[in-house]
Amino acid sequence: MTKLQFRVLYREFLFRIIDLELLAPQGDIGKLLGQFAALLLFVGLWVLLPTVIMSEGPPSELTLLVTWTAEHFIIATTMLVVGLFAVLSWESMFPDRRDIMVLAPLPVQARTVFLAKVATVTTSLGLTVICLNILPGLLTPFAFSTAPVLPPPKYEAAMPPVHVTDLQPVLDRDMVAAWEPTSGRIGIGKDAGVAIGVVEHGVRRVFTYGTANADSIFEIGSITKTFTGLLLARMVEQRKVSFNEPVRELLPEGIVPKPNGPEITLLDLATQHSGLPPMPDNFNPLDRTNPYADYRAADLYAFMAKRGVTKPVHPGFLYSNLGLGLLGQALANSARTTYAKLLKQEITGSLGMRDTVVSLSPEQWERFIQGHSGNAPHNPVHAWDLDALAGAGGIRSTAGDMLTYLEAQLHPERFPTLSAPLTESHQLRASGTAGHHIALAWNHDDRSGIFGHNGATGGFTSHAIFDPTGDYAIVVLLNTGPNLALSPERVGGHIRQRLMGRPAVSLASPLLAGKAAPWSTLRSFGAYWVTLFAAGAFLFSSVLTLQGLAQLLPRQILLRVSSFLQLACFCLFLLVYFLQPPFGGLEVLVNNQGLLPWLPSYWFFSLFQALNGSLPSELAPLAERAWTGLAISLCGAAGAYTICYLRTLQKIAEQPDILPAPWRLRWLPRFGNSLETVVGQFAVRTLFRSPQHRVVLTFYLGIALGLGIFISKAPVLGNQSSAGDVWYQMNAPLLVASILIMCAAALGTRVVFSMPLELRANWIFRVTPPPAVPECLAATRRALYGLALAPVLGAMAALFFGIWPWRAASAHLAILALVGMILSELSLRSFQKIPFTCSYLPGKSYFHMAALAFVAFAYKLNKGAALERSALEDPRRYAALIAVLAIAVGVIRWRTAVRAKSEEAVLHFEDEPEPAILTLGLQHHLAALDHAEEQLSSHFLLKRPSAIRQS
Amino acid sequence: MLELRGVTKLYSSIPAVNDISFIAHAGEITGYLGPNGSGKSTTLKMIAGLIEPTDGTILFGGQPIQHNRMEYKQRLGYVPEEPHLYSHLTGQEYLTMVAQLRDLPRKSSADKIEGLLRLFSLYGDRHLSISSYSKGMRQKVLLSAALLHNPDLIVLDEPFSGLDVSSVLMMRSLIGEFAVRGKVVLFSSHELETVERVCSHVVILHRGKIVADDAIERLRTLMAVPTLEEIFSQLVVEQDTAAVSREIVDLILA
Predict the structure, then answer these.
(1) Where is pLDDT greater, at A47 or A489?
(2) Suppose A255 and one of A251, A372, A473, A744 were both cysteines; which one would form an S-S bond, judging by CB atoms 3.0 to 4.6 Å apart?
(3) pLDDT at A306 (0 to 100)
(4) A930: which chain B residues are within 8 Å (Cβ-Cβ)?
(5) Tens digit of each residue's pLDDT (9 = 90 or more) over A146-200
(6) A582: how many CB neighbours lie within 10 A of its CB?
(7) pLDDT given for residue A27 in this prediction
(8) Is A770's CB within 8 Å of B66's CB?
């Protein structure tokens, strides 16, 4: 009996797991679930995309990074889908009033009901994960198992502190591992060459390995920035410039106007606190192998003219090649020379660094070591020539020259001409990355007291540190671009550990090639599915836990809070998914002091690595968090069901579902004449009080908000990938985001207008004097404007007037309003009904298709925003754009009005329910006639009843 | 005066109402009776304009109602059989919405709504959602909505359903009062005792056809039975109810 009851209840609950009432009242649950499965399979194809990309090319460091990104993407997407599924099945997770009232009189034990419910929830969760991952889950484990892995670094045993004079044999032995990788490790290329300079207590040594010689010249990349910082200190000492001098004053006259607020100073540039983006947005190299060569001063000035020199009110640390490049150019302008000449004149000349230059002589070209790509197979790459941005990374040097430079940093007093500027350049002036402060371009590790800077170009990487306390400095120059096999930073750390007698990190490449063995594939397959089920279970159980906690509230409050919690979860899942940065490498993840290590998608990413046997040691704590989080959420879910079993069931039976609200919005403005007011107020009340309509509208707004934030987070959050846009000035991402949200509000509201509320209550509109179609259209338009356009415009006005100059803000708001009106008019073209009185049964209206179309439309918005941006910068273009949009509004509105006034226009109401009597339809022609008449009678005849009757 | 002439309604060629004709006079309460499925609600829906007759004509004041539907609906008050209302609105909001749909003057309609809410004992609950109303309260909202605009034709489909005794008593006298004021009142009900007390004239429907259309007093005389219940039993009850009851009990006990 119990088993039969369980089976019956299980089947019943499973078909009700998606809230049909919410999505398609009177729809077919079988069809709806089928549509969901198809949608998940489609998303699964999208999830498969990274694997396809990943499969190209030989295994390398890049493959590893792409693999990690793909793994994280799959996990994060699965968690999002499970989260959205949890939101959609919100009301079906626990027994509800209907279950209790129907099942209570029957001889069914509460335990059976609960077991059926838990089994249903588990099955549906499993089906969701399987449907989504059926395609990627079969293919990606093969790709993942052959991808390189990065196991925890190994440390060599500690030995007594090694003096620099004894370092050669130690390094010779240690570097063997780097140069001759054991089988299975992906090593550095055979043409690699590294030059190492070490100075300790005044004793200096240069060591070279591979193709490098002691006098080989390397690109030092961003270590150049410290030279630019020193140049600034030098010129301040000479009173040619001052730290607080606006950079504007050192640019050619008329390039940038003086801003009203605070402006960028030379010190802001040197300390990476100018608010300037990492790179200018007009950086479009013709030759990608030598990308900086054609970026001239004119390009730099053009960007600054557009960007301006306004400084954010509270600029944070934002690493900017543009900022230091601009500083170098500005200082050169001040000295009426070039950066290269200024460098020689003020620094390298004084220090005797003859091989430290921007442009090489023919003789130096002979000693310039060939650079190689960071990715296997480490092909030779073109040298980088920097012009306008030379101050950010244009210097070439030797290990010997760099040792001289670092010696000067350690003992400024030994270099009288530069003593004061060197000392000045070490003053800590602002906060830097986590645990660091910044001096004049030098990064200072607050824990160790060491100053340092890294550098990288297409074919070179470099690392320089100096420790004034320990009186030593190290420089490592490598003729290979950024790679994981042998990074100068790891070599530098190894040498430092040897000097101090600590266990030294192994110099052997940490990168292991993947194995295509059956066991590793099988393990990858298992790790994939276990991780995704665990991630899904974690999220679903977390939602259950949340609901369980909410059940501790008084039931009447719970019923009111529940729908808001549902919406909050929906928004949270979307926002987290769209806001979280893509996987940026281990360092970014481990060193992040913010929320990144607390994002569950990264926990389960680490869990996958642990199960796959490829867990870097840095990620071990995150994998532990995954297990802990999973255990807590499962316990929480169990607790939630226990609470429901012991406490809530009785309350459901005893109390009605809804008691009067303590507060209710009673007053509403009139929307015009009686009909307009009826439609407007009816729409407002329905949207505020109907969870179904609220959820669907939130679905649209949530997607738009998520996409909007995703698009605009670069300028708003100061993301490194931003190309020149800052939030406090007009920028394309915010233009796109605001238009997107306006579109979502207009289309989403229009979609919910088409969703019926209580079809059987529509009779009241049919027994009262019927409005004509044009009147009804006008009323609906007002309701749409009032509910969608006005709130979005208000919110956007508050945002843009708060952050942008008023002219730009008001100009954009005018365009936004016109775009909203165009969309509203388009969406009302064939809307001949009163909002919320007509059904959108499956087959009649596909709101999810509308949502997909909306996403496709959003994809194209970028071009529109670019057009608007160019118009906002030119009054004539702006006037033309406004005129075109206004004409478009007028034309579409006129056509809609003509259609509404046409003879065919009738106000539609939902069809009458099916007649109680069904026939086989054998009298076909008679039945057809009756059907035609039925159809006629199902329309509320307004304009021309006589014409309809004649037809 | 409301008149139906040869009105027929077919559903898939099967008649729900078949060629019915009757007249409901002003100042008179006409009872419209019939067993379940006899076509009562279909007739009342056609009179309310919710569905179109397949054949025949409905006239009000001598004019077919299709000729000037707007004017007809301004004069019609209708209470449907099922109390379907927009349950997310409060009672007061619903009545205000109906007043606006009928384009009634704001001030006077607000006074009327307040008065109706008080008289129907709904005033204390006027700000509650209709979803929390009992069936009787919903019925009162429907009645208020139907009477708000002072209609000339009042069509009531099971108006006493769900009402408590005092409300039923009040409704009875209310309907009588409307008739006295010259309104046309047509109402259907299964409560024959109430119909007998309230109506002067009844129309009895069976299987879509009218089987009686006369004053109650005349029917009693013609059929030589003392009550409307017995008239009804003779005309439309085909089963031996006592025998069927015995069979049901026997089946359960078997």
Answers:
(1) A489
(2) A251
(3) 84
(4) 10-13, 54
(5) 667 666 667 777 788 888 888 889 888 888 777 766 666 666 778 889 999 999 9
(6) 11
(7) 54
(8) no
Q: How far apart are CA B123 and CA A622, in angstroms?
A: 61
CB nearest to A930's CB, from B13, B49, B82: B13
Are B101 and A760 in contact (CB < 8 Å)?
Answer: no
Is the confidence at residue A662, as pLDDT, over 60?
A: no
Which residue of chain B comes nearest to A912, CA vs CA?
B51
Chain center to CA of A679: 39
Q: Indicate the pLDDT class of residue A20, thresholds 50, 70 and 90.
A: low
Strand B201-206 to B209-215 pairing: antiparallel
| Burial class for A334, CB neighbours closer than 10 Å (0-12, 13-18, 19+) | middle
Residue of A nearest to B51 (CA): A937
Half-sphere exposure of A725 (CA within 13 A, CB side): 21
Sign, CA torsion A100/A106/A107/A108: negative
Interface A–B counts its CB contacts (< 8 A) at 114
pLDDT digits over A691-714, tens only?
A: 778 777 877 787 777 777 777 665
Per-residue model confidence (pLDDT) at position B37: 83
The answer to whether B232 and B38 have CB atoms below 8 angstroms apart is no
Name B228's Cβ contacts closer than 8 Å, sequence gap at least 6. B192, B193, B195, B196, B202, B216, B219, B220
Angle, to 10 degrees, between the axis of helix B165-180 and the axis of helix B135-147? Answer: 10
Tokens encoding A333 = 């302008």
Q: What is the DSSP letter of B90?
A: B
User: Tokens standing for A529?
Assistant: 């599915």
Q: Which residues of A touch B10 (CB under 8 A)?
A: 930
> Least CA distance to A684: which residue of chain B?
B89
Q: How far B40 CA lies from chain A's nearest CA (Å)?
A: 15
Residue of B76, B101, B128 with shortest CB distance to A660: B128
Q: Which residue of B has its CA nearest to A675?
A: B101
* Contacting residues of A for B103, CB less than 8 Å apart: 674-675, 769
Query: A931 to chain B: which residues are within 8 Å by CB?
Result: 12
Residues of B in contact with A933 (CB under 8 A): 52, 54
**Res B14 pLDDT > 50:** yes
For A619, phi then psi, to 5°, come to: -95, 0
Task: Considering only the beta carbons, identify the residue of B12, B76, B132 that sits closest to A927.
Answer: B12
CA within 13 Å, CB half, A113: 23
Nearest to A917 among B12, B129, B145 (CB): B12
Nearest to A763 among B11, B80, B93 (CB): B80
The rounded percent of chain A whose pLDDT value lies above 70 is: 81
What band does A766 get if pLDDT is binned at 50, 70 and 90? confident
- Residues of chain A found within 8 Å of residue B14, distances taken between Cβ atoms: 917, 919
Digit-coded pLDDT (tens) for A440-463 = 999 999 888 999 999 999 899 999
The string of pLDDT tens digits covering residues A881-906 is 999 999 999 999 998 888 888 877 77
Q: What is the mean pLDDT of chain A?
A: 80
In this structure, are residues A603 and A589 in contact, taking their beta carbons and an 8 Å threshold?
no
Integer CA distances (angstroms), B124 to A290, A298, B20, in order: 81, 77, 44
Q: Where are the beta strands (DSSP E) in chain B?
A: 2-11, 14-24, 28-33, 55-60, 63-64, 76-79, 153-157, 184-188, 201-206, 209-215
**Greater pLDDT, A22 or A569:** A569
Contact A51, A139 (CB under 8 A): yes
Average pLDDT rounded to a whole number, residues A255-273: 89
Shortest Cα–Cα distance, A742 to chain B (Å): 28
